Amino acid sequence: MYQTVYLVTLAGTGLVLAAAFSSLVAFRFGAPLLLLFLALGLAAGADGLGIQFDNADVAYFIGSLALAAILFDSGFGTPLSALRQAALPALSLATAGVALTTVLFGAAAFYLTDFTWLESLLLGAAVASTDAAAVFFLLRVGNVQLRDRVRSTLEIESGSNDPIAIFLTITFVEIIALGQDPAAEVLATDLVLGFIANMGIGAVVGIAGGLAITRLVDRLNLDHGLLPIFVLTLSLLVFAFGGAIGGSGFLAVYLAGLVAGNSSIRGGALLKRFQDGVSWLAQIIMFLVLGLFATPSEFLPILPVGIGLGLFLIFIARPIAVWLCLIPFRFPRQETAFISWVGLRGAVSILLAITPLLVGLENGRMIFNMAFIVVLVSLIVQGWTVGPLARRLGLIVPQRIGPLEKVELELPGSAHHELLAYTVVAGSPVARGERIPRWARPSLVVREGRSMKYQDAGRLVAGDHVYIFVPDRYPRLLDRLFASPTEVSPDDADFFGAFALDPSHMASELEDNYNPGLTEAELKLNIGQLMLQRLGGRAEYADRVTIGPIELIVRDVDEAGRISSVGLSFEPTPQVTSIPPFLSPAELADRIRQLVAGWRDRGKGEAAAEQPAEQRGDDQDTYNSRGN
Length: 628
Description:
By secondary structure, this protein is of the alpha+beta class. The chain folds into three domains: 2-392, Na+/H+ antiporter like fold (Up-down Bundle); 405-482, Alpha-Beta Plaits; 493-569, Uridine Diphospho-n-acetylenolpyruvylglucosamine Reductase, domain 3 (2-Layer Sandwich). It has helices at 2-29, 33-44, 56-76, 80-112, 117-126, 132-141, 148-160, 162-177, 184-219, 227-244, 249-261, 268-293, 303-326, 333-341, 347-358, 364-381, 386-392, 454-457, 477-482, 493-496, 508-514, 520-523, 527-534, 585-610, 613-627; strands spanning 405-409, 417-423, 441-447, 450-452, 465-471, 499-501, 544-547, 550-557, 563-569. The chain is globular, with a radius of gyration of 29 Å.
C-alpha cells in the first residue's frame, strides 16, 4: 500500500514535470502546447508506457474541477473594456454559434457514421465549443498582435461558450439514456426551456457569488498566503452550488470571476499571479488525465471518418456558424475569416465526450474516440497555422509601445492608487533623459543593488528599478516613458502612411487635394468624424478606411475613444480575396440586389421570347417608326 502511494506520486509528478518542460518546446517552435500535453498522456497510457486508467467517473470529476478553475481565471482576467467592445458578437457566437455548429456537425456525423440523429447531435454538441487556452497560447507564442475587437471577441467567446455546449451535451445524453425518441417540436421546446432555466440560474448564482467573493475578501483580514486559497475555494463553491440547484455551474463560476476581477478586490495583483499558476496546473492535469483515458489503438477503424469530420468542422461547420452570427456586427471579411479559423477544440470537447460513458450509452466509447480524433485534427491543422494566417490576412498590427518591465505592488487600504515598479530599459524615453510627469510621484530607485531617493539618483540609466506612486487611472504616457522603442515606428510609412493628418481638419480638405469622392454630408465632417462614420461609430488603433485613391489610418485613439492621430497612405492595402467570401452585410445586400435584378432581366427576356413572332415583328416595326 505504502509503495503504491510512492509509485503513483512518482508517475504523476513525472508527467506534470514533463508537461511543464514541454512548454519550452512549444514556446520555442510555436507548437500547440495542449497537443503536447495530450501526446504525453497518450504516450504514458495503455498503448504507451502501460499506465492503466479507464475510470470515466474519476476522469470527468478531475476534468470538471480543472475546467471550473480555468473558467474562473478566464473571467477574472477579462476586463470590462473587452466586454464592452465585443460582448454582443462574442455572446452570439457562444450561443447561436454553438447551436449552429452542433446542428451542422451533427448532420454530417449522421450521414458519415452509423450513429442515430440524437447520437450525432450529441457528438456535435461535444465538439461545438472552442478552447480559450489553446487559442491564446498560440497568439502569445506567435507574437500575434490583433486588433482589440478581434482579440476580445475570441477571448469572450472561448470563455463563455463552454456552458452552452455542456448543457446541450448533457441534455442529449439524458434523452438517449431514457430511451426516448422525441418529436422535433418536443425536443426543441425542452431544449429552449431547459436552456433558459439552466443559464438563468447559473447567471444569478454567478453574479451573486462574484459580489459575495469581493465583499468577503474586503471585509476579512486574511493573511496574504491564505487569501488566494480562500478565493479559489469560494469559486469552486459557486461552481458546485450553481450546478446543485439546477443551473450551469460552469457559467456561474465564469461570471463570478468576471464580477470579482472587475471590482476593486483586495490583493488583485496577488490573486492574478496565483490564478495564473493554478490555471496552468489545471490545464496540464486535465489534458494528461484525458490523454491517459484514451486508447489510441481503438482509433484506427474510425480514423478516416474522424479526420473527415474534423475537416468538415474546420472548413464548413465553424465558418458557416461564425459568418451567420457575425453578419449583424459589421466585421470585415478578413476578421470574420480569422475568427472562424481560430476555433480550436480542446479539453472541454474531450471532457464532454466522456459523459456518454458515465451513463453507459451503447455507442459511448465510439463517441468519445470520434471526439478525440476531431480534437487532434483541430489542434494539428489549426494550431500550427494561427500566426501565419493572421499575417496572410493582414490582421497583425504593431504594438503601441515596445517591451515593458513593470510590476504592480499591493497597497493595503488604497483603492485609488497603485505602486508600480518599472525597470528602465535601454532606448526608452526615460533612459534618454525624458522627465517623469508631475502626477506620478517616484519614491525610490534601486541601482546595482543600492537603494536611493529618486531626487538623489540623478538621470535614470538602463537597469534601474524605479518605484512610482500613481493614481489607479494613470495615463498610458507612463508606460510609454519606460518602454523600449517599438519594432514599427509611428513614422513607418508601410504601416502608418506617408504622413500624419490632424483629425480635427475638415474632410473637405481631402476632397480639394485628393478628390476621393466624398458625399455632401461627409464634406461637413472633420477627418476624425468621417473615419468614425465609415468605421461604424468606433475606432481602434490601426483601423484603415479606404476612400477612393487614398487610405486613412488610425495612428492613435485617446481614452475617450476619439481619434487623436491619423495617417494617410496613397497605396490602399489590397483586399485579400483568396479566402471564403464571408460577405459583410453591405456586400450581402449588394449581391442580393444583383441577383434580384438578374432574375428580373431573365424574366423579361423569357417573356419576350414567349411572344408570337408576329407580335414581336409588330413591336419592332413600331420601335423603328418611333426612332425614325
